[in-house]
Amino acid sequence: EGVGAQEYTLIKMKVVVPYPSKLSHFKGRDLYLVAATLRPETMYGQTNCWVHPDLEYVAFVTSKGEVFVCTKRSALNMSYQGFTNEEGVLECCVSLTGEDILGLGLKAPLSPYMMIYSLPMLSIRADKGTGIVTSVPSDSPDDYACLLDLQNKQPLREKYRIDDYKLFSFKPIPIIDVPELGTLSAQVVYERLKIQSQNDREKLQEAKDIVYLKGFYDGVMLVGLHKGRKVQDVKKIIQQSLIQSSEAMIYYE
Ligand code: A2H
Fold first, then answer.
1. Lowest-confidence region among 86-95, 209-218, 244-253
2. Confidence band of 1 (pLDDT split at 50, 70, 90)
């Protein structure tokens, strides 16, 4: 952990069988898309998962015999953080593109939806996190904007061959009450700033600053074991409980 290291919570989103052809090689093993988040306490509000259709990903076998899917850059970082048997070595490593892992059915920890799906987000960066982002449209303006774009723009759905049932049954879930911003703070700020789409990068940055600050310092949990408590008091507790149940890990970069 060097100067300025960022701690992420890696959320293990279990891919539902049968695996797609590019991953059929891993039949019989538990396989996960691993998303890097700064907000483990928002996992109660997951409605889907984001992958970048044009990014390169890898699947590799961890020291526990599970299969993780993420960018190669993050997989190598993981290999130096005890995730693999040997540092710098990715066992049974298979290369994938984002398109190979679009539309997968996933079981996401703490989400009230039994199954959620991987959908395309074009603003995912290759140079941070795992390239997999878990979507919480109630509390993340980026996630809200992207979900709304997909729901409103038929050509976008067609381009990435997204089945309607993977998208339209999923609504933002009220999980945190933020004074002045209410229980769907990302949507409220998106509307207040008159954001038009996921490409409104400047306004989205402004929205993120507002929602993140107020949500963290003044937000109160509306759901789960810690209902009624402040976000900043329970964030670490929720992270630790996800780690205890093997649904999450800590990852630095
Ligand atoms: B956060 P930082 Cl509810 N490209 O998780 C783009 N965005 C990425 C990413 C990538 N490669 N990897 C992670 N992220 C997102 C939840 C969340 C997040 C909420 C609210 C705010 C928020 C649900 N999505 O982040 O630049 C992930 O989304 C606001 C910044 O590395 C991750 O946490 O600091 C966050 O950005 C990491 O951003």
1. 209-218
2. very low
Ligand 1 centre to CA of 134 (Å) is: 8
CB 57 within 8 A of CB 51: yes
Residue 2 has pLDDT above 80, yes or no: no
Half-sphere exposure of 199 (CA within 13 A, CB side): 2
List, chain by chain if needed, residues with CB within 6 Å of any ligand 1 atom. 6, 36-39, 42, 124-125, 128-129, 131, 133-136, 139-140, 143, 208, 212
Domain encompassing residue 62: 7-173+234-252
Q: Indicate whether 103 belongs to any domain.
A: yes
Is residue 2 one of the residues assigned to a domain? Answer: no
Are 34 and 69 contacting, i.e. CB atoms less than 8 angstroms apart? Answer: yes
Looking up residue 76, the CATH number of its domain turns out to be 3.90.740.10
- Ligand 1 centroid, distance to 38 Cα (angstroms): 6
Q: What is the pLDDT of residue 23?
A: 96
ipTM computed for the complex: 0.98
In a domain, residue 136? The reply is yes
C-beta pairs of 71-79 under 8 Å, 24+ apart in sequence: 71/126, 71/130, 71/131, 73/126, 73/127, 74/36, 74/129, 74/130, 74/131, 74/251, 74/253, 77/251, 77/252, 77/253, 78/251
Number of domains in the chain: 1
H-type helices in the chain, by residue range?
A: 72-79, 141-152, 154-159, 185-192, 201-218, 231-244
* Domain assignment of residue 22, yes or no: yes
CA of 143, closest atom in ligand 1: 24
